[in-house]
Amino acid sequence: MGFTSLAFLAFFPILWLIYLALPGRARAAWLLAASYVFCLSFGIEYLLVLLGSTLVTWLGALGLEKRRNISEAQGRLLFGAVIVFHVAALSFFKYNRLGLLLPVGISFYTFQAIGYLADVWKGRAEAEKNLLRFALFQAFFPKLVQGPIERSGNLLAQIRELPGKNVRDIQRIRNGGLLILWGLCEKLLIADRIAVPVNAVYSQFGAFGGVEIVLTTVLYAFQIYCDFAGYTDIARGTAQILGFDLLANFQRPYLADSVQDFWRRWHQSLSSWLRDYLYIPLGGSRKGKLRRAVNIMITFLVSGIWHGTGTHFLVWGGLHGVGQIIDIKNWKLPRPVKQVLVFLFVDLTWMVFRVNSLGDLRGMLQILVTDFRLRDFAGMQLTGFEWILILLGILAVMIKDIANEKGIGFRQWILGRNAVLRCLIYTGLIAAVVILGVYGAAYDTSQFLYTQF
């Protein structure tokens, strides 16, 4: 039951209407039940894994809080044991060769659990005594599949305040609805349409020339951005309608002027998690330049491993580690030049990220060097009209990001218009998604790219 499925289109309005009618004290239980139904729609085994992870984390945090005040040695042992449990479980499901499918959301809620345990152990957060509230923190369905990776100080704090929260705030509901609509546009109008030529070329790259490889590599940068940002916008919009504010995950990443800046803007909940729970505990930049470089490389290699089992993910992480160490932030170049250089670097590394193996990468690079020409444009499986839609979609995303960078918010502008104009805009967006969105048997519109990670 992905966000773009008809099942979710029926599921969420029913959930929400009942949620509005419930007394404050019953809301958390209702959201937890709905979140478990959402998880169950992917498979009962996935729900069982989530339940096991939740129970171990809850009990572990209670034990850590107690042991921290009684016996530091016992606390360290318990902390290490619970972390090993989570890492082992994630590694088993992610890297097993038994053909088991990756449980939905496990990469995200495992990192969330580890961060929560670390915060409790360090005294930065209190262990949640109420199992229901903690279970909702782990399972909250808008962020379950692809994050963001939440912190207890944000989401768990809001869950504790839920009984007294005003969940009928019309401005929040409008804002959330507009976020959902924009997320659907990013996913169905742009990302899924770009996926057609990208999948065609990357699966049969030997049939294409260097021009098609370059074109689809550039397009992939916008596919993965619109796909992941689209999911995040739908998740944040859904959560806003329910009265919650999830962490932002993207802040105009392709306008970054350094690799460090890119990672402050891209998948922010993961990059900040890696910074706070891996890079800084390793020593960060406090122990000299060499140690800083080593810590950066370890952090980004872990990021690569987190994303997948292929060696190309490890190479992708290593390249970004090198980019962080070299970093062009202080180069004496105009900012627009830096932005172009960073985008080219990021896009090249997206090529490493997207290929199926390092062997495919070598083959594609060889074509770029020896056969840089247009061989089979029609083989990319799009009509001229669809190419125009892609270009218009990318242009819309770029205009939005540039405007937001300058402090101009389109969503705030729309929400400030009168009811008639707002309705016209909403109707136009809905019509665009329904009429121009990518649907059909050839496309799995319920699947977002980061679900596989």
Provide structural commentary.
The protein has 453 residues and is mainly alpha-helical. The protein has two domains: 6-167, no CATH class; 171-258 and 328-452, no CATH class. The chain contains 19 helices and no strands. The protein has helices at 6-21, 24-40, 44-70, 72-95, 106-121, 131-139, 141-144, 152-160, 170-203, 210-241, 259-265, 268-282, 289-307, 311-326, 335-354, 358-370, 384-405, 410-415, 419-436. Helix 2 packs across helix 6 (131-139) and helix 9 packs parallel to helix 19. The longest helix is centred in the middle third of the chain and has 34 residues, at 170-203. The protein is globular, with a radius of gyration of 23 Å. The two termini are 17 Å apart. The relative contact order is 0.11.
Summary?
This protein is an all-alpha fold.
The helix content is over 70%
Number of helices: 19
Strand content: under 5%
Mean pLDDT: 92
Question: What gap, in angstroms, lies between the N and C termini?
Answer: 17 Å
Q: What is the count of structural domains? A: 2
Strand tally is 0
Helix/strand order, N-terminal first: HHHHHHHHHHHHHHHHHHH
Q: What gyration radius follows from the Cα positions, in whole Å? A: 23 Å
Low-pLDDT windows of residues: none
What is the oligomer described by this structure?
A: single chain
Shape: globular
Largest sheet: none
Decide which structural class fits the backbone.
Answer: mainly alpha
